[in-house]
Amino acid sequence: MAQKTIRLTMAQAVVRYLCNQYTIVDGERVPLFAGLFGIFGHGNVTCLSEALEQVQDQLPTYRGQNEQSMALAAIGFAKAKRRRQLMIAATSIGPGAANMVTAAGTAMANRLPVLLLAGDTFANRLPDPVLQQVEHFNDPTVTVNDAFKSVVRYWDRIVLPEQIIQSLPQAIATMLDPADCGPAFIGLAQDTQEIAFDYPEVFFEPKVWRIPRPRADLDVLAEAAELLKTAQKPLIISGGGVRYSLAEQVLADFAASRGIPVVETIAGKGALTHDHPVHAGPLGIVGSTSANALAKEADVILAIGTRLQDFTTGSWTAFDQDAKFISINAARFDAIKHRALSVVGDARETLKELDAALGAWTAPADRMPRAKALFAEWNAILDDHQKPTNAAVPSYAQVVGVLNKVAGPNDTLIAAAGGTPGEVTKGWRVKNPNTFDCEFGFSCMGYEIAAGWGAAIAQDGPGATGGTPIVMLGDGTYMMMNSDIYSAALTGHKMVVVVCDNGGYAVINRLQQFKGVPGFNNLLKDCRIQNRDNPLHVDFAKHAEAMGAKSRHVESLADLEDAMTWALSNDGPTVLSIVSDAYTWVPGDADWDVGVPEVSNFETVRAARKSQEAIRANQRVGV
Fold this sequence. Notes:
The chain is of the alpha/beta class. Helices cover 36% and strands 18% of the residues. It folds into 3 domains: 5-209, Rossmann fold; 218-375, TPP-binding domain (Rossmann fold), CATH 3.40.50.1220; 389-579, Rossmann fold (3-Layer(aba) Sandwich). It is built from 23 helices and 23 strands. Helix 10 (289-297) runs antiparallel to helix 14 (367-386) and helix 15 packs parallel to helix 22. The longest helix is centred in the middle third of the chain and has 20 residues, at 367-386. The protein is globular. The chain starts with a strand and ends in a 6-residue tail after the last helix.
């Protein structure tokens, strides 16, 4: 019997296939792709948009304002859904596609899935060079889309309509594989989009995708159990993989029954609530005194679902040279880092199996009381820095304290770049699991507001908590990318954006001066501007109001508390602005390896260089 076919253009076939992919969220079958963020241009408006228009009730299309920010919104959505449900970002060729490369890097660094579709030049090359084509004189196959190859897990260019039959399933499988998870890119040659092909009907049959849970090798698991039993001062590092594996409760039970304190990475923060009995604070450069002290004295460290970024490891100065690592990770690449005993497997299932292999073993009885005492000291430090003072300008820590106080248990804090990540990682006291999103794998300025919109869209579907995204960012980041305030106003999605106006790029100014360089080109007063004594001031509240948001500028912490209560009662986006201190930060005590000039005319730089050499002398040698 001949195979049944259906004649569609390539673009129509792409859309039909994507509409027939499903997944399971909280026991309910839902579309794998909840929607598409799109900006149309000549590379996709005549074919791809024609196909999308016909399914807009099944696959909603959201109009983006910037190609980078709409892909960042898709990433924020994927984070909110813990990689269980995805969004698509579609752009035209040339500058539209190039704008999306930064977002692809953000997804890649954070191991997050998003499907990126970009128009491409003509496969037949007859009209070359087309509008927005970047020509490579010695390789006519290269286009702007080749730039994505360094920042995606899966890359393809479709030049024949039948190629999608093989490509689309591979792209989806990559995005849903915990070991290989990341963005997938498919370039759609604009002339190929229009070509009709007789596609097999079976290609469009509904498919339900499930997230695989790979199990660890039993011999390695037994070895890990024996190593952990030798520990006198064990420690668990909870990474983002704990959250994406839905392993929060298993981790909490494991740590409590075995008597092992849990510290967290930036991506892992929020797997446990702040006051959970086993929680001992965030680790590393933007971490707590409690977690860093526990790490320094630990002899066996169980790292779960973390890629052990330098901000977690203090550039590998946070641990004793002789400490042993057991790394549970779905990705082999991450599991073998720094001479770790590599346990490749799903976090939730591997923890269960490790628990069974440990028998009756528990950590020494003094380990958990030690962690609790250190964490109590850390909470006292936070209280001291977050309490109101008579200072003319509030600190970041005080702003974080107010927002945290007013926020509901299901409201999600979102941050990314600048001074905010350190202050919220240290000072945001998580009330419910999975209500914290600090993008610090790529530290992408501009993620915050876009991700807030994406997280708000995630509240529309299954698994919604009913909480509100609370976006906290600085004035420098706000100026870089704020247009999705308008997006949220257009679509009616609720979020609260809090802008801390500290007069420039304050935290990088802090690093600059800490390493001996005079303040230069970071704070507005140190830039080449017309009036350094009184720099031109942006009224962020009025600016946001012009984009359709409700807004207030507040002058004090008391005003901020009232304004935050009001903001959470509103529908749609609300923006609050407050002047904040550019020089006051909650202390941290982990080192960071950055480049410092080997020779300099500044004595302060030469002194900083000596300090940097001392840091490097303490680094743990690994791979």
